[in-house]
Amino acid sequence: MKRINALKLIAAQFEDELVICNIGFPSRELYAVKDSVNHFYMLGSMGMASSIGLGLALAQKRKVVALDGDGSLLMNLGSLVTIYNQKPENFILVVLDNECYGSTGSQCTYATTVDLSRLAAAVGFKNIFKFTDPEKKLDLKTVLEVEGPVFIHVKVEAGNADVPVIDMEPEEIKERFMVGLK
User: How many domains does the chain have?
Assistant: First the structure.
């Protein structure tokens, strides 16, 4: 399944969750399939969606979902350890694993040889869900109700959808998101 199709299935299940989306094409794809004032589209800071999501989860009570990529997660592995140790009950980390750095030229990541779900388990995560064929069973209804922190590993195909650039400036994205927090 292509990442944009996985994002369609995932975003359709969001209601009031705050969503932090990984840089580049994942943000553009989420914006194209379901824009929301509750979505923060990262336009920089590769590897930081999980850290930003963690901070947001610790600062308030609403459910927070960080949509990250395998390359970004591997770039900031310390975030997994920090998330586990902080134990935010309202935090879900979704890793869309296409085994490449999709926004920078599709260079292969080490997700080709490392099972990210097993890595999360080794850190200590208890609530781990892995979807290797998202089209058949990417149902997050029960996952969204599980006490966090939650790690969701979704295998997707490499490649980016042909979607336009987000038509907001970074400041607009931030200000709109902050309004949605209130």
Answer: 1
DSSP assignment letter at 145? G
Q: Burial of 62 by CB count in 10 Å (0-12 exposed, 13-18 middle, 19+ buried)?
A: middle
d(Cα 79, Cα 124) in Å, to the nearest integer? Answer: 13
64, 75 Cβ separation under 8 angstroms: no
Dihedral over alpha carbons 113, 115, 120, 123 (to 10 degrees): -50
Domain holding 71: CATH number? 3.40.50.970
* Total count of residues recorded for the chain: 182
The secondary element (H helix, E strand) that includes residue 96 is strand 91-97
Tens place of pLDDT per residue across the chain (182 aa) = 899 999 999 999 988 899 999 988 899 999 999 999 999 998 877 889 999 999 999 999 999 999 999 888 998 999 999 999 999 999 999 999 887 666 665 666 767 778 999 999 999 999 999 988 756 677 788 888 888 899 999 999 888 889 999 999 999 999 999 998 87
Give the three-state DSSP class for 120.
Answer: helix
The range of the structural domain enclosing residue 55 comes to 3-181
Per the CB < 8 A criterion, the answer to whether 34 and 15 are in contact is no
Q: Indicate the pairing of strand 107-108 with strand 100-101.
A: antiparallel
Does pTM top 0.85 for this prediction? yes
